[in-house]
Amino acid sequence: MGYRAKLSILSAFAVLLIGIFLFMGLGSNWDYALPRRTVKILAIIITSIAIGFSTLVFQTITNNRILTPNILGLDSLYLLIQTFLVFLFGSTHVTMLNKNVNFAISLCFMMLFALIFYQLLFKRAGKDIYLLLLIGLILGTFFGSLTSFMQVLIDPNEFLIVQDRMFASINNVNTDLLYLSIVGIFLVGLYTLKYAKYLDVLALGREHAVNLGVDFDLVVKRLLIIVAVLVSISTALTGPMTFLGLLVINVAREFFKTYKHSILTAGTILFALIALVGGQLLIEKVFTFSTTLSVVINFIGGIYFIYLLLKENRSW
Amino acid sequence: MKKRYLLLALVILSIASLFIGVKEIHPIDLFYFKDEETQILLISRIPRVISIIIAGTSISIAGLIMQQLSRNKFVSPTTAGTMDSARLGILVAMMVFANASPLQKMMVAFLFALLGTFIFINILNKIKYKDAVFVPLVGLMFGNIIGSITTFFAYKNNLIQNVASWLEGDFSLIMKGQYELLYISIPFIFIAYFYANKFTVAGMGEEFSKNLGLNYKQVMNIGLIIVAFITSSVVLTVGTIPFLGLVVPNIVSIYNGDHLKKNLPHTALLGAVFVMACDILGRVIIYPYEISISLTVGVIGSALFVYLLMRRKVYGL
Asked: Would the CB atoms of B128 and A139 count as touching at under 8 Å?
């Protein structure tokens, strides 16, 4: 089977799932339910694009198959920045009342931090992949604790107002940010076109890429910014999903058995879409909401992560 | 740092802890034997101080034992799945026995903690290349998986709030009549002291300890039983206190070397001082409200952990 055929099958499956999600049990209230479902599915599609592409790019520039931006705690960092903004300005300030303004400010901070922080981290920890992973995991906990810490410090009444509007999950998609995210994804896409041709070369590693005439540091910095933007978008829309990126990218690599980023990008995004929509359908219809998607993804992803670690342990 | 300074710090902090709270109590009141004040001291404040000391001491020592046995500085109840297993155990106890008594919960939690730690140690034995950092990485993930199993069943049985309350370590609910289970871990601390030298030998590896005539399996099992018992009693009464068993022993070993028997009292004292200081901090910052101990220790502890990881070459960890 060629790449094209495989991609077609995946796309067909994804469209089928989306169709089921949109039209299943629509009934007589369709004029109420359909727009709501459409908005939700749009948010899921954007999340899939953001998670799939950011994971792929991140793995390419860090040259490994275990690290993902979410495992390194970038999504927790986003939540921390948002909480910090509420902490700083209070919930009634204009930056908090207008979600789009809040999102834009968080985004700027996120890009800045991602650059400084991960440059530091990579310079310090360097090639030691396990050290990076462990520090990333603990930083995730650290950001998480710090976030809750600040949330406690914020006046409880004020916090309740903010919490509901700001912190999304897959069941509570943040639809107000949808338009801004669509624009964001579109702009990121345009910006990436310029660097997309480098991705295959970057995958060869730093030395080869430099030999082949790529301005490695510059391109990597630009791509890191893109990753930060994408992680912010996905976290703002549907909340943190630690292991989704790791799962889908490895499934895509196994399925396509290629290094070509044009195909891997499409494949990863499609797998993310299938996982999210299919998973959500399973949760809603089979488990009837007795569990959440993130629990299931954490369980499967965690086991897969240990498997990867133990497997790679031999070669590294 | 001398032991007596740590002891002095602990005494001062404990006295301070007794007189911090929403209800103002002056040390002078005690001499007049005012009824209300004495009651508050006896029912709430003194149990709180005692439970902080026991929890801080015992979790730190559990961490030290685990590090000694696995010969890895970054193994602790948090990074080996022990705490998460204990929580799963409490959940199972609540699901199986409708009105589980604390002792029943404790026993089931103990069995699960033991089993979880045992599985983790077995996974470790499968790994050929034991990188100092690789081991806690696998342990944290192992804990995450058990945690998601717990969440899954808690969701199904509408127990999610109960589970959340063990996730958050919290001393504010400690009252007379509710914390006494913690006393169970005291004898285990003494057993740990008694076995200290044997743990050191066992940490050298199976072959080596057999050559020295040590019953490796037995010592290993005793170590794991101590750890599981301490962890489950603390998780049940106080809740999860993250990274405590990791950070405290490492700080002690940075300034005091690696002699286990010598380090045990230091680790115990520093653990108690650390938790006491964090608890007072959590009570003062948003007075009259409180910040739970797992948050204060979580923030400080994870920051210290990252610092230790970054500097581990310097300190030879």
From this structure: no
The pLDDT score that the predictor gives to residue B31 is 67
**CA pair distance A232, A78, nearest whole angstrom:** 6
Taking an 8 Å cut-off on Cβ atoms, the answer to whether B127 and A124 are in contact is no
If you average pLDDT over residues A41-68, what whole number do you get? 89
Judge whether B291 is closer than 8 Å to chain A, CB to CB.
yes
Among the residue ranges A187-196, A267-276, B99-108, the one predicted with the least confidence is B99-108
Q: What is the 3-state secondary structure (H, E, C) of A56-121?
A: HHHHHHHCCCCCCCCCCCHHHHHHHHHHHHHHHHCCCCHHHHCHHHHHHHHHHHHHHHHHHHHHHH
Contact A305, A286 (CB under 8 A): no
Cis omega (within 30 of 0) on the bond before B102? no
Q: How far apart are CA A148 and CA B219, in angstroms?
A: 40
The confidence band for B28, taking pLDDT boundaries of 50, 70 and 90, is: low
Residue B150 has which token pair? Answer: 């717990």
Return the H-helix or E-strand segment holding B43.
none
Using the Cβ of B159 and the Cβ atoms of chain A, whether some distance falls under 8 Å is answered with no
pTM for the predicted model, two decimal places: 0.84
> Is A150 near chain B, with CB under 8 Å?
no
Q: Is B169 on the interface with A (CB under 8 A)?
A: no
C-alpha to C-alpha distance for A181 and A174, rounded to whole angstroms: 10
- Is pLDDT of A85 > 50? yes
How far A118 CA sits from the closest chain B CA (Å)? 14
Residue A315 has pLDDT above 60, yes or no: no
**DSSP per-residue codes, B156-220:** HTT-HHHHHHHHS--STT--TTTSGGGGGHHHHHHHHHHHHHHHHHHHT-HHHHHHTT--HHHHH
- Judged by CB atoms closer than 8 Å, whether chains meet at A309 and B302 is answered as no
Query: Is pLDDT of A153 > 80?
Result: no
Residues of B in contact with A135 (CB under 8 A): 306, 309-310
Tell me how far apart the alpha carbons of residues B298 and B303 are, in angstroms, rounded to a whole number. 8
Q: How far is A300 from chain B (nearest CA, A)?
A: 8
At B130, is the secondary structure helix, strand, or coil?
coil
A132, A141, A146, A150: best mutation site toward chain B, by most B Cβ within 10 Å? A141
Q: Is A126 on the interface with B (CB under 8 A)?
A: no
